[in-house]
C-alpha cells in the first residue's frame, strides 16, 4: 500500500523555513538555493492540500495549520536523526531506550545503578529525559517511563502497561549534627535514633507536594505534634536531602533516594518508624505493542534491581 508520506527533502525544507520564517535563511542552512526551498515547500503544500505559509511584507509567515504541522515535523525529524545516530553508533547490534523519568528517582536511584546495566548489557544505551506527568506514547518518542504515582493515577493512564517496582515508604532523616545538638550527645559516643515524641520538638522540613506528610507520620506513631506543618517547604526529595544534610531540620524521605548520604554519614535515620506512602514507582510501557528485545531486557534488569533494593 502506498503511504501518504511526503519526501524527506520537502519536510526538511519546510521545517527550516518554518523555524526561520524565511526561505532565504532556510536555503543558507541547507546549502540550497532560495528557489529550491520555495519549490520544495510548494510541492509539500500541494501534497497536503493545505497552505502552510502566507506571504508578508517581510517574507513568509506560518499559517495556523503550518504552525501545528511544523511542530510535528520537527519532532519527527529530530527522532529520525536520533535513531539514525543510534544505529550508526551501535552498528546494528544492541539498541537504545528513550526513557521518560521523574527527576529525583532517576538521578538518585537509577543512574547510580546504570553502570551495572552497562557491564551486563554493554550494547544497551539508555537516554533519559525528565517527565513527571502521564502522556500519550503516540505523541512522543519515548519507549518507556519511570513514573511515581498512586495506583489510581496509574490505572487512569490510558493505553499503558505498568510494572510496579517499589512503594515510596518514607522515614525521618537528618544530619547527625542535628541529633548531637538535640540530644547533647557526648563526643565519641554512638548516636541512637530518637523516640517519635522527640522529633516533634525538632525543626521539620516539609515537602510542598505532600503538605500532610509530617501530620500523617506523627499520627501513625500516636504522637501529638502541634507544629507538624511548620517549617520550610521544598518541592523535590533532592532538595529536602540537601537541606537535611546541612542540618536545617528533619525530612521525610525514602531511604532509597538518600543511599549515598546515608553511606557517607551525612544523613542518619532519626527514627526508625517508616510511613507507607500513597505513591509507588512504576515502569510504564505502551500496551498496544509487544516490547522490543532491548526494552524487555531493560525491564527484567530494572525489576531485579528493585527487588534487590527492597531486600
From TrEMBL:
Using the record for this protein, list the coiled-coil segments as residue ranges, or answer none.
Answer: none
Q: Where is the HTH lysR-type domain?
A: 6-63
Pfam families the UniProt entry points to: HTH_1, LysR_substrate
The superkingdom of the source organism is: Bacteria
> Which biological processes are named by the entry's GO terms?
DNA-templated transcription
Could you tell me the keywords of this UniProt record? DNA-binding, Transcription, Transcription regulation
Task: Provide a Gene Ontology MF annotation, just one.
Answer: sequence-specific DNA binding
Q: Which family does the entry's similarity section mention?
A: Belongs to the LysR transcriptional regulatory family.
> Which protein is depicted?
LysR family transcriptional regulator
- Organism of derivation: Comamonas kerstersii
Higher taxonomy: Bacteria, Pseudomonadati, Pseudomonadota, Betaproteobacteria, Burkholderiales
